[in-house]
Amino acid sequence: ELGHINPAFNVDDPGNGLVLNAGDLNRPYGNNLFYITHDSQGQKKNGPIFTVGQNSIINNGSLPPKVPEVSTPSADDSNEEEERDTWGNPIEFLLSCISMSVGLGNVWRFPFVAYENGVGYGSMVGTFVVVSFYVSLMGLTIYYFFASFAAVLPWAQCDPAWAGEAACEPNSTYLKENNLLIYIIFLFLTRNEVFPQKANIDDGIGYPGLYLSLCLLLSWVIIFLSLVKGVKGSGKVAYFTAIFPYVVLFILLIRGVTLPGAWSGILFFITPQWHKIYDPNVWYAAVSQCFFSLSTGFGPIIMFSSYNPFTRNVYKDAFIISLMDTFTSLLAGFTIFAILGSLATQLDVDITVVAKSGPGLAFISYPDAISKFDWVPQLFAVLFFLMLFTLGVGSATSLAGGIITIFCDQFPSIARWQATTAICIIGFFSGLIYVTPGGQFMLTLADYFGASFVIYVMAIVEVTAVSWVYGLNNLCRDIEFMLGIKLGFYWKFCWGFFIPVALIVILVYTLVTATELTHNGVNYPPVAIGCGWALAAIALSLLPLWAIHAVFTRKSKTFLGKLKESFQPTEKWGPKSPKIRAQWMLFKQQKELENS
């Protein structure tokens, strides 16, 4: 008799005289794989040959007498999934990941942090919160970009309408009010008709500004055009969004180091403060920066990887992306503190006075320094804000693309353009709260409750689930199957112990030592804090809800059986390609025999 099974492997079992060789994989039924045999008259008949368990393949009730040969999966094997988009060129994946990780966080967040010191669905909520306020900053960048084309930069000269009780001084970009140094550009940002800021939000956040609302709309239109065609479109965009910022950063760095006082700023940036290494807040800030910069836990990394061939060397990609992210953060730090050092020298003040955290660095300190350039400051301003917007497009398309992919994969009947349109419309209207007079209060609130806290918790759950529920040995075995390399003790120690324990300790410490949330020293009204906790609760509640769903949809008849089954891979778990899946199952069997 000759049984036909998947061409991925051949099994010769002399114990019962049965030979299984290359043929057609017959459909699975329950836990049994059925084969087709031929009797002496040539008639076909069906019968079970392999019972597929969770960890082994059993041949007629016993293990095969010898280990089957396992062929290595190739990129061609995964091409059977024609319905799923793939990158037009392998470099597009790498550029997209770099464009995602190298974003506004490297330019306005890392330098100041360095200076100062249903997991999927839950992460989706946190990701959407981030992308909603992220694009609002892109809208502000667009406004500054167009304002930079003026014959004289609007923030380079004092306008009495903004000055209040303080007097404008000729040829000065700052003034003193109540013995405090105030930059003209800060007044331009907070007191003019474009983006007036409220002192508090006790009486509400106000109405969206017209100009910034239009800039926000333009930002979402550009994101829509980048995403509507899937990775084949966004991959092409990545060529520009990943490369152009480096051109501008190097131009600004070369210009910055030639300014008087620049090296004092650079030395301030790289001089370590060793006593702070014992401060847990420094470690929390470092971890938060890594999460924000690399988009760890947000979903785009997994989303981008899902469009790769099965055997893509993600080990090498992870190293390159992390290295480029760190390099870019340092490059941005040198560039920014060189210019801030020059600004501090001109104003004869300490550099800590001119350094602003968060958006203030990108929209106050840095543009003010550019306005003092001796020649064509408008050119450098245009380049700077174009670079900021390009960085924003790279990261925002990654974050929004991750959300769109969730819906398209979960509900295949939804066309990609429909999902993209819906996400962009919802994102625009939700982002209007950030372009109100109380918008910066809302940004801080959303970032704290809806993004940082939620993503942090989801990352802890994710790494714990992968390491301890699915299992480190299974994970390392799968990586060996995909890439042909064995991971050593270092990775097992980090994934299985150090990372989950460190993240949990940092989270507990942060919660225990947390103080009341404020924005620029101003307390939030109780209703705002309540809304923040409600937002966090919505995202975190998805974990137990989907856990309950996973338990009660299992096939076991008893509750304990369902609970146990919910912690085990389902029948659908594994490579999607039938050919690669068959190779993977035999590879698992081979590893079990080797370890037995």
UniProtKB/TrEMBL annotation:
Superkingdom to which the source organism belongs: Eukaryota
Subcellular localization(s) per the UniProt record: Membrane
Presence of keyword Aminoacyl-tRNA synthetase: no
Record GO biological process: amino acid import across plasma membrane
Principal localisation: membrane
GO cellular component, one term: plasma membrane
Gene Ontology terms for molecular function: amino acid:sodium symporter activity; L-amino acid transmembrane transporter activity; metal ion binding
TM region positions: 124-146, 210-231, 243-270, 282-307, 319-340, 379-407, 419-436, 448-472, 493-512, 532-552
Span list, region Disordered: 60-85
Keyword Glycoprotein assigned: yes
Keyword annotations: Amino-acid transport, Glycoprotein, Ion transport, Membrane, Metal-binding, Sodium, Sodium transport, Symport, Transmembrane, Transmembrane helix, Transport
Function: Unusual broad substrate spectrum amino acid:sodium cotransporter that promotes absorption of the D isomers of essential amino acids. Neutral amino acids are the preferred substrates, especially methionine and phenylalanine.
Family: Belongs to the sodium:neurotransmitter symporter (SNF) (TC 2.A.22) family.
Protein's recorded name: Sodium-dependent nutrient amino acid transporter 1
Species this chain originates from: Orchesella cincta
Lineage per the UniProt record: Eukaryota, Metazoa, Ecdysozoa, Arthropoda, Hexapoda
